[in-house]
Amino acid sequence: MGLFDRFKKHDQDRLEEGLEKTRTSLFGKLDRLVRGKDTVDDEVLDELEEVLVTSDVGVKTTLDIIDRVEARVARDKYVSTKELQAMIRAEIADLMLGDSAERPAGFDAPLPHRPYVIMVVGVNGVGKTTTIGKLAYRYKEAGKRVLLGAADTFRAAAIEQLDIWAERAGVPIIKQKHGADPAAVAFDTLQAATARDVDVVIIDTAGRLHTKGGLMDELAKIKRVMGRQVPGAPHEVLLVLDASTGQNAIRQAEAFTESVDVTGLVLTKLDGTAKGGIVIGISNEFRIPVKYIGVGERIEDLQVFDRRAFVDALFK
In sequence order, what are the beta bridge partners of 240? Predict the structure, then answer.
């Protein structure tokens, strides 16, 4: 078995393990919902709505699913509660997959730009630094030359933490002292990446300043500086969200996407929560793809988000 086959098998196993709490919670609620009932009626639909909302699927997405189930019930006239789980699976799969069911590109896929510059944003405590370290490791294991930039110069110990992850991943890092200009760090990182013929650059950023406006202004400045150094940079802006915070993750996504041109989402800590339904809600509500998910604490426990594999693992 080759390296990438081992990673693929590992990712499948870890995804199923990581969704165990969510799967158990959701199916437990569904079992209680249909117990002693024969058909899907208005009462069942009302209770189903409550089950989905309390599973952190989100109000908007829950209503979308309920509308689809109601239409099916109205069309077929008789739908048994035994069919309900299959219906929910089909509707969730349809919402998440949309018109695109193909497998996403992996870390070994050809890069559209070199250096390929990734800017990582998100509030403190969501696992941003950890995500960067794991992302660097997966790219490095796929044969890419990776460089990190420690542009979160505001939070105490942020630079030291990223330095530790750079060492774990076996990749170099560009850093300055605490309190340095974040945009200057980003500039130096891209300058070094060009000189060293680097494939992938990953830039850490602050998660909190004194005001939300101050943070967003700082992120915009970093983007402008990088764009002058490498045309088109950053090529990807990843927003990291903590899945265990449930609906708070959606509020964070709303705040960041209003101010920053986010191109992809990363959902962390799926293995430690029963709130994995948030992935369904975020996938449906935002026109921004979930790119990566974190399913464990090990350095290899970050994987490319495969919507079909997610649905299969959730309803395993």
Answer: 266
**40 alpha carbon, distance to own chain's centre:** 34
Query: How far is the C-alpha of 39 from the C-alpha of 84, rounded, in Å?
Result: 9
Structure tokens at 63: 């209503």
- b (16+ CB within 10 A) / e for 211-249: eeeebbebbeebbebbeebbeebbbbbbbbbbbbbbebb
Q: What is the pLDDT of residues 124-167, one digit of tens each?
A: 999 999 999 999 999 999 999 999 999 999 988 999 999 999 99
pLDDT at 8: 67
Count of residues for the chain?
316
Nearest-CA neighbor of 45 among 21, 61, 69, 10? 69
Compute φ and ψ for 174, nearest 5 degrees. Answer: -105, 130
